[in-house]
Design brief:
With 427 residues, the chain is an alpha+beta fold.
Length: 427
Amino acid sequence: MSIKVEKTDNKNELKLEFTVEAQKFDETMKKVYFKTVKYFNIPGFRKGKAPMNIIERYYGKEIFYEDTFNEILQEVYDNALKENKIEAVSRPDIDVKQIGKGQDLIFTAVVQTKPEVKPGKYKGIEIKKVEYNVSDEDINHELGHMQERNSRMVTVDDRAVENGDITVIDFEGFVDGKAFEGGKAEGHELTIGSNTFIPGFEDQIIGMKIDEEKDINVKFPEEYFSKELAGKDATFKVKLHEIKKKELPELDDEFAKDVSEFDTLEELKKSIKDRIEKDNEQKQKYETEDAVIKAVCENVKVDIPSGMIETEIDHMEKDMEQRMQYQGLTLDMYLQMIGKTKEEFRKEYEDQAKDAVKSRLVIEAVANEEKIEADDKEVDEKIKEMAENYGKTEDELKSNESLRNYLKENIKTEKTIEFIVKNAKIK
């Protein structure tokens, strides 16, 4: 077999031309025949017993070509990348030039390669210091959440609905005098002011009394996820069954005892302050790192292959899918709700993906320049931490070579970022 490697007219792109001897092609095709013969049912032969030449005559001589090609491609392509030290960042674009029994197999594979990046200025980068101070407002905000979590519902029967009340209603929606799908519910709990319904709906509930019935007129937003309802006028027939409100506990020492391990409200406030300060430290750290890396990246010009950007968007898409699952949605359902196609969604993430890829390439370039590496001891410490967190044994994780390589790269990245931040001028 011979391999010819040449650059294309496009930057960071190579064309590999493979010539595989006819003998190897024919031998691989025989292997494919023996693997797949059991699936062929030829008249006059028991299933799986038809000779190779009969199958070719019945289905055409090319019947085994595709599987044979894929077998050879899988074997020779990865080896060619390793032997020629090519870092491919995209799927190969395959073009078969010649294929057939008794002939050399000739095909090309065009692939995008990882760009070579030279770091610009990365020492002495000037950035503004990131600071977050804990205010009384921050503490009171957290106390407010604690009050909400420990509130109780109280039924209201001596007044009309007010903003902030929780109502229990029946409703049915009509467009052009006809009820529409999904527009009816009974015993529905609605918090007034939550803005979970169509604009204008909740406002018209205010002032209603228990057992009162009312027609509420609204207009669906133009960007509403259902195209059949978007921009349409609608009437909802509403009946109010119940009014409830939240009763918040008093902020005093008794409250502190009930919701925490502290005996006084002042102790609880101090604990909240300490926690927010700790969170702020992490926030300051990450934002400082982001600012420094962004500044370093601005000093570097690099042509990022489209394959790397597409792969990064793939990761973002998978991440979004996982987050949607936690909310009981699929990505397709979410896109339908916001009125966007998959292509539009991916396009929106293009710049973000490009920045993420560039950051990784620049950090890697700085690591290479400064000869920053992760040693086995550092990797073993991470593995020990993972074993404790996930209930695994250290030996079990240590034997996973892919995990070790992943952790090694992560540690290397962390150390490089620390190095860049340490050498920055933060004012």
